[in-house]
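Entry 14. Structure prediction run on the chain below.
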Amino acid sequence: MNLKVYQAGLKFMLVNAVKRLYNGEVFFEHSLDHGIYGSIKATQEIDQVAMGSIKEHMNRMVQQNLPFEKKIVSKKDAYNFYLNKGHDEKAFNILNISNVVVSMFSLEGQYNYFYTHDMPASTGVLQYFDLYFVDNNRFILVYPFDGKMDFTFKKKLYENFLLYEKWVQRLNILYVPSINKIISDGGINDLIHKNEIIMNSQINGVSREIIDNKKRIVLLAGPSSSGKTTTTKKLGLFLASYGYNAITISLDDFYLDNAHKPLLPDGRVDYESIDAIDINSFTDCLTRLLKGEEVQLPVYDFTTGEPKPGKIVKLKENEVILVEGLHAINPKLVNMIDPSVVYKVYISPLTPLGIDRHNYVSTTDNRLLRRMIRDFRTRGRTAEQTILSWKDVRDGEEKYIFPFTDTVDVILNTAYIYEIGILKVFCEPLLKNISMDSPAYDEARRLLASLNVFYPISSEYITPDNILREFIGGSIYND
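Output returned:
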């Protein structure tokens, strides 16, 4: 079963259980590891005991094998339904989609809309789930991933999401319709500048931490399309503004030569694996730089698949080494380096925006859209190729990045609250170009449907130092 469909079924069960037991309302905020973080508003506080009761009720629903029923209704009827329920954000989202009809689903007489065209046949197939208690009225709905229940509470990621949530709450921008209203009222340029101030404030704070704690090596890692390149260059400028110059090293330049790279089962080079990195050479470079020696860095030639000699550098007083790459926070890289001089940064676009109370903007989808645009612009790859290679990318992230996110010193959130409106302009024609007979077609249609509720935003408002420029073009850092 499609994971999105499975998640939608679990969410519907939870919404109904909370309504039946505590006459409460569930709000799904964002993903967290292999789970969905959310909160509950009810007439009583939902403590750990109450959360246990909700889980028991959901298990009974599984045993009862209750059917999910699909109902096609007119857009107007769906709009009025949610308006009457007081779910204004859902009503306005439905108003803005291009469809003339809406697929709604019912469970035990309750109707809902989860932006999926399908739902499980019945609750009986949803036996694998868990409810992780975070705090009173706060939970994580855990779902199976790759056929197993594998969830770890990532405290630092959770806390970073909360920080961003507090900011959007102060601005009263909880859901997509709020962004759409700002766009239609002509206020998007102001919001873009506010968001950039928040982004730069984060990076400045990290630069002060590095200086105050006398760190010499800064490791910056993150999943694909997190904006690592721009963030690293911005951090270097902030450090320089305080008189600390940065030597920037890309882990990509330490790829092994063709004869020693690891391979995937189908014979392709596994560039996502940490074993593709020449760790010994990397460690030797760092060790010698810390000793004050001159070092000739390698430059990896992606055309030939071989490293070649690069620039010669020497670490001076008041200089910092910035190491940027997919695997930078993996302990294998620096286990021979004095940890007191190392500072680890995890970079990821942790999207805080909700589509509505039951559907959130997927951080993974956000990154995929970014990558699709950049791949097409800089590498000549089609959206189809990007989608079909995405699983390999995600598998590498699951193995080599996500397990270490709670070991870092700080998390930099590189998501812009408005950015889907920017990406939509670039992505829609790429996605629409995927033919019906392509294995990427269904995913392309799903992504297009998810973009429906967002108003487009012109890229003319995006400054040349904005992280989004790394993907859409026009960056002062890498174009």
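The mean pLDDT is 93.
Filed with the rest of this week's runs.
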